[in-house]
Amino acid sequence: MKFKKKTAMLVSFTLGTLLVASTALADIANKSGYDQLKDALKVTAEQSSEKFDSFTLDFSMAMKDNGKTLMTSNEVAKHDRSKGASETISSGESLNGNKNNSNYYSDKKTMIRVSESDPTYYVTEFTKERTEDPFDNPFKEDGADDIEKIADAIVGSLKDHVVVTENSDGSLGFAGSLTEVQIPSLVNAVASYSLKQEFNGNQDNMPHLTKDVFVKEVKGTAKVNKDGVMENILGTAVLSGKDKQGTVHEVTIEVLAKLSGINSTTVTKPDLTGKKVIKNIAKNENSGPEISNPEKFVGKFSNDILLEKDNKFVKAGERIIEITQIDNKTVVGRYYEEYKPGFEEYATTQRNFEIDAKMSDKENSSGYDYTTKSGSKGDLFIDEHSAKIYVNGITQSMSGLIFNSEFSPDVE
Question: Is residue 268 part of a domain?
């Protein structure tokens, strides 16, 4: 699923809150329910990344404001560790009302993506077989131990508000809820600050919460099978706050995650017969694809030279890259700057140099390295799908100018 950064942060916060809510009251086998739940999450992540041959993860989320749906998202990810392959089907509606339906496939030699808005199949083939596992264990990421300690500290007495049930088949059921009066003031103080940052009015259709912001209710259920693997977890958080007009908003976030198809999931590579296909070649996943038709980048690319004047942004001129020759090994051209009348003072250090760049031989780079006659070094990155050129190594020629490394084509 592809959320905007702010939305992703909100989801992370909500999931953290739901984890707090999913702590346990019972002490089974000398372990609290909280510890049992945490163990189950760790066991599930470890076995998914190291033991299971294949499995399916299904994650759904919905956000509502006073009962009105703001956004929905669903992602079904199939993983086949034995083949190093994965397949993800995503669907939903974003905050701005756009439909987000896409498919993504990956194996050791290939990546394929397609979306409903663009039926073209974008295929990247790798010259070197990749060794990355299709599923990474989040508990082994850098900083995971510190996050766990913070969660343990925050949980505190909240462990006493969730019931753990031991079923006859050896599985465990977790269920519980917290209301605003049961949530510690420290947690709600942190929540209030965080939620004001997320609901700040900068995203379309999102309420702008400015005061009286708190977590009103959190509830959830989970099931852990007899082998200690988490099969599903369902959680709901209700967040309350007022906007500038004093209108009360109750934002409900519902999250459901399910694990199924253990050692029986099948990942299928898309059939490209009769489909519109754009194919690229890349060294590895980090290096990016080669350009399928470099010649279309011959021409002029530019961006505006901006500065702040009288409390607003004004255009002082243009930065220009003119490509005269390009293939998947070299880029030849020129970089120069042009300033508008009235901005001559900024043109005293304007730059004008030839570009003769070579494809980088660095393992994790798909850029073209260049060195100017004055000895300055930089690199260019060509993005075929966005039709843009990104340049690193060119700094501002004078204080006050705003530098933009993204160059767009000059077209009629």
Answer: no
In a domain, 361, yes or no: yes
The verdict on 256 and 303 lying in the same domain is no
Let me know: does 291 contact 382? Beta carbons within 8 Å: yes
Instruction: State whether 240 and 324 are in the same domain.
Output: no
How many structural domains are present in the chain? 2
**Do 204 and 338 fall within a single domain?**
no
Q: Which domain holds residue 389?
A: 291-409
What is residue 141's predicted lDDT score, i.e. its pLDDT? 79
Q: What's residue 110's pLDDT?
A: 92
Q: Would the pLDDT of 23 be above 50?
A: no
In single-letter form, the type of residue at position 220 comes to G
Strands 248-260 and 406-409: unpaired
Sign of CA dihedral 348, 349, 350, 356: positive
Residue 276 corresponds to which amino acid?
K
Angle at 280 between CA 276 and CA 285, to 5 degrees: 125
Same domain, 26 and 87: yes
For every residue of 6-55, DSSP letters joined together read HHHHHHHHHHHHHHHHT----EETTEEHHHHHHHHHHHHHHHHHHT-SEE
Residue 161, classed as helix, strand or coil, is helix
How confident is the model over 176-192, as pLDDT tens digits?
788 888 877 777 787 77
Least confident residue range of 18-22, 327-331, 359-363, 385-389: 18-22
Residues 365 and 247 in one domain: no
In a domain, 72, yes or no: yes
CATH value at residue 305: 2.40.128
**Residue 274 pLDDT exceeds 70:** yes
Return d(Cα 60, Cα 62) in angstroms, integer. 7
Whether residue 111 is found in the same domain as residue 30: yes
Sheet of 102-106, strands arranged across: 162-166, 172-179, 211-224, 230-242, 248-260, 54-65, 68-80, 85-93, 102-106, 110-115, 121-126, 277-282
- 52 and 198 share a domain? yes
Q: Same domain, yes or no, for 31 and 171? A: yes
> Helix, strand, coil: what percent of the chain each, to 5?
20, 45, 35
pLDDT in tens, 63-113: 999 999 988 999 999 999 888 899 999 998 877 677 778 899 999 899 999
Minimal CA–CA distance to 240: which of 286, 191, 282, 202?
Answer: 191
